[in-house]
Amino acid sequence: MLQFEGPVLARVELRPTLIHLTLDTSSLTKPPVAGQFFMARCEGVYLRRPLFPCHIEAKRIAALLPLGQEVGLTWLAARHVGETVDLIGPLGCGFALDRPAGNLLLVGWRSGLASLLALAEEALTAGWAVALLAAFERPDMSVPTVLLPPAIEYQTAVGSAALDDLEVLLREAIPWADRACAAGGGGLYSRLAAVIEELRLGLRPGLAQVLVEVQMACGMGVCGACAVRTRRGMRQACHHGPVFDLAELVI
Amino acid sequence: MNLEVELAPGHKQGLLLPNPVMPAAGSFGYGLEYEGLVEVERLGAIVTTPTTVRAQRGQPQPRLQELEGGLLIGTGGQNPGIGRVLREYAPRWARWGVPVILNVAGPGPRAFAQVARRLADVQGVWGLELTLPDGVESCGAGEIVAAVRAETLLPLWAKLPLFRGEELAEVCLEAGANALTVGVPPLGMSIDLGTKARLLGRLYGRMVKPLALRAVDGVVQRVQAPIIACGGIHTLEDALEFLTLGASAIQVGSATWVDPRTMARIVEGIGVWMSKREVRDSK
Fold this sequence. Notes:
CATH class of the largest domain in chain A: Alpha Beta
Number of helices of chain B: 9
Radius of gyration of chain A: 17 Å
CATH topology of chain B: TIM Barrel
Strand content of chain A: 25-35%
Radius of gyration of chain B: 18 Å
Order of helices and strands of chain A: EEEEEEHEEHEEHEHEEEE
CATH class of chain B: Alpha Beta
Number of helices of chain A: 4
Largest sheet of chain B: 8 strands, parallel
CATH topology of the largest domain in chain A: Rossmann fold
Oligomer: heterodimer
Largest sheet of chain A: 7 strands, antiparallel
Distance between the termini of chain A: 30 Å
Structural class of chain A: alpha/beta
Number of domains of chain A: 2
Shape of chain A: globular
CATH architecture of chain B: Alpha-Beta Barrel
Number of domains of chain B: 1
Number of strands of chain A: 15
Structural class of chain B: alpha/beta
Distance between the termini of chain B: 18 Å
């Protein structure tokens, strides 16, 4: 973990409201893993904002940033090549894929998809077969196809009933999966837990990991703002997570 | 430049800090969390998260609302309890050169005293800071300090609720406190209009500074004891305002979350400021 100035290496407008920002992280001795995050200082807001990479290389990361939704992230998204961003990280515990490689099901909802893209790349490299189920309220919130690795199987549910439609897709995919990883919260995890309980005869530890999205203040595990209820007591999402075993969470 | 400051005058061992800058309780964990980002040896002291006799699970979400220039945060006093703190952190503290001040919280004298009792023969704790409950009566504040004083010879600081410093300062000193911290951040509340969920918490950030300046000034005028100022300090200039008022030391809270380099910058800046003042005064 370091505090460093990360130069912007590239800025691509994927849509009028979605920026793909690549940052130089060569100051780090070790790159992050998917699900880990950086706390980025942003002008116009008091607290740092967590930045979850959607793409990770040895000396650079990329992030998907929405324009116009939130002051801090909009400021970040407006940075241009050559400018720097004050970053602290990598922080927290990310997704962990054990061996041997098998079938990996990724389930995403809203902004949580960024971390799953980084995980998909890691998993494909490690020999996993990867399927991504994604739900969005509007078509313009979907993952730009340019960011999807070619080897990934991708299905979407879009619209006001997207979560219900996603559950249908989940029921088809869960029996196939050796591991499931999810991000996005907001009702997704209770549905995922229920489907696994039903179709896999119980939710055993090690089967599903989820990235818990909760507002953070310090990002270092000291302020207590991002507390999450788990079967082992309260845990800090920024320090013990943000990725938790689904069987461990009290949903 | 010598920045040392004595924060337990009259105490047998005293509590001499290498400089007057330290984290506020609750902003820096138990000192190990910021390893790699903050050189703890450059600080005047480490003040720990408020710690109770038993582990506290704290309050449910929501716990945080960001505000302009600050935040409202309510954890319900979540902490691992004194037993686990001493097992996990005290061995490291004992190897540090920087003084560690254990912040203690509790509902009343007995709970505070129970924590103090656990500190006998513990290496690495240099003193205690007692966070007095918000609604404590004047006599209750004295009872808390006296109960802890009866259990430990360590230097004691009493951390006073921000708006009640003048009322409680004297009784805490008479009961055995060696210094006063001003103060415990003010209480606040927010309501989510959608879910009607309430967040009860404390205010941190720049907006607290004017309140803290007023509170520190009131206590400095009233008692002859070291005052440790706490509230809204983000810059060297903020720190100098409190020191100019008569505070002996300052604590940095949420500013560390914004930029972990804040305390080191303030230490360095105070050194430069004092050098310039020395040169000016010698002319």
